[in-house]
Write a structure and sequence with these properties.
This protein is of the alpha+beta class and 637 residues long. Helices cover 27% and strands 20% of the residues. The protein is built from 15 helices and 18 strands. The strands form four sheets. The protein has a six-stranded antiparallel β-sheet with strand order 6-7-8-9-15-12, with no helix packed on it. Strands 5, 10, 11, 13 and 14 form a five-stranded antiparallel β-sheet that branches. A four-stranded antiparallel β-sheet has the order 1-2-3-4. Helix 4 packs across helix 6. About 1% of the residues have low confidence.
Length: 637
């Protein structure tokens, strides 16, 4: 967006140029652009595009509630100063949307579950802007708002991040003398405690679901609730725990942002774009000791600048369904034209005044701008490699599949691939989205259909003394004929299952390279089909900065290799090129195959060298001269 460049300040922000003025101007641009699509009463904002999976009424409510977040953050950080008249504009929509007699009324919480999500945004903004909006509403409108939110009390919410929507709504109701149930809040808090995992991470429910929701929802709402309920012993006692978790989580989160500002392209709801910045602002508002404010702003502003530099919002000031520009296949079944405006959560930093340290500190470099690193993240089972030369962050995945060990679902390309990065997108559309090719290890059946890995067992996530990362997982290969009515919420799909041999994979990661070891096992007499290994899916056409080269270098026994082009298969470019290698004949059992997999900003030099010392010890020599010995005994089946 050219209009933002006039605010650039390379003294304060030497990496992005962005300041609070950029964020405020972007928020204002989105809010004023949205008004063109509002109903006469402002209650419904219906952005252009086909209706979402939940219908036009839900779409219009999302349009209001999600832009309302940006408006509320904007005014709260200015202590009520409101030159655009945002509070008056949205007050009119509140009055109509909560009026049960109005033809423009909102869908209610007891009519559609999605209204429970949007109600939390409304309640949160009413809390943050209370002196300038709620306290000035007509008592009749206040009563309507309470009545609209009241069905949250005693209602059932899915046992995932949604529990926080009930907690936030009921906490607001309690603060204004409305109905609430202490039991609902206590049970929701207890349930959310069960989401806590190692190193400050949260899973989105009982499954191995790790994605952007870990930051923009599961880290954000606990501290916001503690702020809303300040003075309550339950909230005050929990806040230090929530803060400690966030601080530890942010240590990992800053390592997952590329030098070009791209967040990790992994997990569902990617159309929320710069909502990924929310976690860093949450840390600033909560007062984490580390990372420092300059690094928090660098990460958040880098994310926003990444999207604005790549066409989001579009020329009409609209956030479309897509990642950079519009790309409808990115939608899940719940996504509609108003859904992308949960990007407004990324404006949470605007709740902090201009003199807050997060705005006045000089930007600090991201970890990937400071040097190469190798990081293990135990909860999601990720091996994280960042390289300064190209600014790319890569994740090799041995712990996340949006499922549980032992299940036999299809692989979701958003969760179950072996690798994700800030420079590549998994193949999300076309035949190879449902039938794994990129970042996969599969057995091909008699019809050349690839197997799936969801339900795998994590064996190892560790870091060797040399810094090399080591991870392993194993699973029973399976083929699934999905049920026709399976809804896409980003996870794998169920259906008729046929089981095959077991597959064990060991990954050794150093810099831009992964050495991938693969071993198959099966009962006596069972013969697997050919083995195929897929590499990083490289965008072709207008590739993002840094994504220059993807290679798969096969070892012995993998005598076929190639690269498959997939059209319109990811949001990054018109074409995606996926290198792969395979065996031309049925794979051998109880034999280690090896593949070197590369993603970097330039053509690779010499690959890692692998040799075997007996049947179990693999000796690796990396291009930088580092030598490692891998004991494969633990991954033998």
């Amino acid at each position: 967006m050219r209009m933002l460049r006039e605010f650039d300040d390379l003294r304060l922000s030497p990496y992005t140029g962005w300041t609070r003025n950029h964020w405020a101007a972007l928020a204002d641009h989105l809010l004023l652009s949205a008004r063109r699509y509002a109903s006469a009463s402002h209650a419904r904002i219906s952005f252009p595009g086909p209706p979402g999976g939940y219908g036009a009424d839900v779409d219009a409510l999302e349009g209001f509630a999600r832009t309302f977040l940006a408006a509320g953050f904007r005014v709260a950080g200015e202590s009520g100063r409101d030159p655009l008249g945002l509070m008056d504009w949205y007050a009119r929509g509140l009055a109509t949307g909560t009026d049960p007699r109005s033809p423009e009324r909102w869908v209610r919480l007891d009519e559609h579950g999605q209204a429970k999500v949007e109600a939390a945004s409304i309640a949160l903004v009413l809390h943050l802007t209370r002196p300038w909006l709620w306290d000035r509403l007509d008592p009749v409108v206040q009563e309507q708002v309470v009545d609209y939110l009241a069905p949250a009390v005693g209602s059932d919410y899915p046992p995932i991040n949604w529990v926080w929507f009930q907690i936030v709504v009921e906490q607001f109701l309690a603060s204004v003398g409305g109905p609430f149930e202490r039991k609902d809040i206590e049970e929701g808090l207890a349930l959310s405690d069960g989401f806590a995992r190692e190193s400050g991470w949260y899973a989105d429910g009982a499954e191995r679901a790790y994605d952007h929701y870990a930051g923009w929802a599961l880290q954000f709402y606990p501290l916001m609730w503690a702020e809303m309920a300040a003075g309550d012993p339950a909230a005050d006692s929990r806040r230090p725990v929530y803060l400690q978790r966030l601080e530890r989580y942010l240590h990992d989160a800053v390592h997952l942002v590329g030098a070009d500002g791209s967040p990790l392209i992994q997990g569902r709801s990617l159309a929320y774009r710069f909502a990924a910045a929310t976690q860093f602002w949450a840390g600033a508002r909560a007062g984490v000791a580390t990372p420092g404010p300059g690094l928090l702003r660098r990460a958040a502003s880098g994310i926003a600048r990444h999207f604005t530099d790549h066409g989001a919002p579009d020329e009409e000031g609209i956030l479309t369904l897509g990642w950079h520009g519009a790309w409808p296949p990115i939608a899940q079944s719940y996504s509609g034209p108003g859904s992308p405006y949960w990007a407004a959560k990324g404006f949470f930093g605007l709740t902090l005044p201009a003199d807050h340290p997060v705005w006045t500190a000089v930007e600090e470099p991201l970890p990937v701008e400071s040097g190469d690193y190798h990081l293990t993240v135990a909860a999601p089972g990720w091996l994280v490699s960042g390289t300064r030369a190209d600014g790319i962050v890569r994740v090799v995945n041995h712990g996340t599949d949006h499922s549980r060990p032992g299940t036999h679902l299809t692989d979701s390309p958003l969760y179950a691939r072996l690798g994700y990065s800030t420079a590549t997108s998994p193949v999300l559309a076309g035949e190879h989205a449902a039938e794994p090719l990129d970042q996969s290890v599969v057995i091909l059946d008699e019809n050349e259909r690839p197997s799936h890995r969801t339900g795998f067992e994590t064996l190892l996530v560790d870091r060797l003394p040399t810094g090399t990362l080591i991870g392993a997982s194993r699973w029973q290969s399976h083929w699934v004929t999905p049920e026709d009515d399976s809804r896409d919420h980003g996870s794998g799909r169920s259906g008729a299952v046929r089981l095959g041999p077991w597959i064990a994979v060991i990954s050794a990661v150093r810099g831009p390279w992964e050495v991938r070891l693969v071993r198959l096992s099966a009962p006596a007499g069972e013969q697997p089909g050919p083995l195929r290994v897929g590499g990083w899916p490289l965008p072709q056409g207008h590739a993002p900065d840094g994504a220059a080269c993807s290679r798969v270098i096969p070892g012995a026994g993998l005598d076929l290799s190639g690269a498959t082009s997939a059209e319109n298969s990811s949001p990054l470019a018109p074409w995606t090129l996926v290198p792969w290698c395979a065996s031309s004949t049925p794979a051998l059992l109880d034999t280690w195959y090896d593949v070197a997999v590369y993603l970097g900003g330039q053509e690779p030099g010499d690959p890692p060298v692998l040799s075997w010392d007996g049947p179990a010890l693999a000796r690796l020599t990396w291009p930088d001269g580092t030598a490692d010995v891998l004991d494969t005994t633990g991954a033998r089946l």
